[in-house]
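Reopening this one. Same input as before:
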Amino acid sequence: MKLAWYPSLLLIFVSASGALATEMKPPTLSFAQINWAAAVATLADTGAQQPAALPERFQPNQSSASDAVAAALVRLNAAMSQQLTDMADSPVPVLMPFATTALPPDLAAGAVNAGNEGYLTGFQAAKFFHPGPAGYDAAFVIQTSGSAKFSIPIEVQISGSALLYELDLPTAARGTPVPALEEEFPGIRRLMLEHHLRYTFVRFGVPYVVSIGCFDARVPRYKMPTCRTAEQVALRFLRALRMVGGMPHRASAATPPPPIQRPAELSPSFTYHGPGRLLSDTSHNGQRGRPDHTVYSQIRFPLAEAPAYANSERYRRRNWARAPEPDIASEHSYPWRDNFCERRGFLVGQCPAGNGHQGQDIRPMPCKPTPGANRCERHDDVVAVRDGVIRRLLKQEAAYLFVNTANEHIRFRYLHMNPRKMDTDNLLSGRRVREGEVIGQVSNFNKRENGTSYHLHFDIQVPTKDGWVFVNPYMTLVAAYERLIGARGVELVGPTLVATGDPAKMAAATEPTHTARRKAKRVRYAKHRSYNYPRWYGRYYARYSLH
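Same output, byte for byte:
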């Protein structure tokens, strides 16, 4: 079918009223039924005295049995408060690698260690323990000894969640049983998912996950242990787990997500392609992306100012932050385009191909030098999208923001900011931030300065029955951007042709033909080959490099 051209005609298949476009939707949640009596039955005497009265936010006593449970938990939380604060804020039993039998004698003798490393069975607290209405998250580190090849600490993460996100995963992660731990953790499963070794199990009615990021090879690379080493650490961690606190809360009942807030007025300029519509030649073997219209959180947009452009950075050039940028329409213009599942070397369970990008690239407004200058002084601020707690170690490139409320358990990851500046600004584990607070600046760091183009990578992870998994942040960002600019965007639901009065320009605006795409692919491959790297280098780098 041929399409006639008419001068000065804007031909766009869109949905301004939402009749054709799919509506945004909230996430689907499930909530755990917690057996606190079974949890308390596992406790040893902590040696702490019971306070006179229970705090107001905890469940009232309803029977002598519940009185005994509450009394035991209050004693435990009081004893542990010297080691980890806010322990009672967790509505699920808190499991940690803690030597609870060593604590009572020290309490009785008044010789409790100032730090908690003496009770963590060889692990060290990573200054990250975040309890809240939806559960708790904690991180620990262990230093491998006697290894010249790998001397950096290994970080172990554990989460217990009162709620789970119900996802339709195209790539199901079944996992395998762990006979050596079956007696202590009935039903425990071991699985490799999204470059993390995970052990998932249910105890006291609560789903838990222990995970370690690892490199599936014989030797460690990129500051990650081998998965074989990670497995040894994880097994030691699991065998040391003990209940160390928590308290049933009145607000532990199921709370649905709030309605999605969108401006009523339509924007005259902001348009976006629907989720899953990848840029041509960036998909895996022609497969589409993930058409997910879920808004996983009512966030503040991660860049401080508009306009901003969510588009692919797959083939963008690597530019210095101060270099003047050409005003290229594809880089700094609407419509936005999803790139969650575009062709990258990262495992993503939600993508049809099983691989993808894990998040969304966001580019700030163009840099324009002042008159007479040949450099741009860029200060594009990055802000916290919600109230929450930071998890990040020194020198790490990734910064996580954890959010924990009655109807939300979610974490956001920021990439490509400068690690040295984040260290200087104290963007480290345990720091509490407020929504809209500046936490960094957009940069081009990817293992080194100028390691990627100037942009922010932003992604979202939620807890599921298989642990934390990446979900498509695209529509969450669309809704946040609408609130930032105070107007509703228009979703493009068909091909876009812009008639400018020039047939040549109009032809350039159409989708490229199959021949053109193959030619462009050969040109890009020739450019990569011109560096004279070994043939295996490109495949290796694509699989294991950061975004």
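So the earlier flakiness isn't reproducible anymore. For the record, The radius of gyration is 26 Å.
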